Amino acid sequence: HNEGNDVQANRTWLLPQPLGQVVISNYDHKTLSLCFMGNLTCLRKLEVLESPGLESLQLHSCTSLEDLRIRECKQLATVKGMQSLVNLMNLEVLETPSLVSLKLHSCRSMEDLRIEKCESLIALEGLQSLVNLRNLALLNAAGLPPYLERLLGHYELCPRLESLHIDDLSLLNMSLCKGLTCLQCLRLEKL
Q1: Do the Cβ atoms of 52 and 72 come closer than 8 Å?
Q2: What is the pLDDT of residues 31-77, one digit of tens each?
Q3: Backbone phi and psi for residue 170, each to the nearest 5 degrees, phi listed first
Q4: 8 A C-beta contact, residue 59 and residue 84
């Protein structure tokens, strides 16, 4: 269901300021941009689900967002405005095979990150900035281990990680695991 005023010319939705949660499913346009009256937002949770034609999600005005869930957006290639998500605590991206990169530099509050069935994803830019990350799941994302290996040569990653859920054993051989002094739960799948 599509909630809000869809401005047909540029696919920008002007939403009322007090909304705390928005769920968008079966969105059939290439671009989705959320805007709020007076540029103020109370939006804490956004879910974009089962939108196979969506190619670009623009989040510049979602400055209060704490929870972002993207699922089954087969053509989604870019998520713009991640630098505005300084309060983001939870990010889930599932079954989004066209997404190549996520820019996480500003998401320093993030505690939970789940990436699953994102076959084209080859970069989590700013992963080293996620110093509060406690739970990390990387499943069916074959492009990420080589990226993480390169990153580990320059940064200590995830010093507070308590839970790691993976399906690629090569991650266990990386220096990533040497710095996981807080790890309490390791879940391995599809070995």
Answers
A1: yes
A2: 998 877 666 578 899 999 999 999 999 998 888 999 999 999 999 99
A3: -60, -25
A4: yes
Sorted by sequence, the CB contacts under 8 Å of residue 45 that are 6+ apart come out as 20, 21, 22, 65, 66, 67, 68, 69
Strands 5-7, 12-15: pairing kind: antiparallel
pTM of the model: 0.88
Q: From CA 13, how far away is CA 33, in angstroms rounded?
A: 6
Residue carrying the six token digits 């007090």? 18
User: What is the Cα–Cα distance from 135 to 144, expressed in whole angstroms?
Assistant: 16
Contact in structure between 89 and 111 (CB atoms under 8 Å) = yes
User: Residue 24: what pLDDT?
Assistant: 93
The Cα 163–Cα 136 span in angstroms is 6
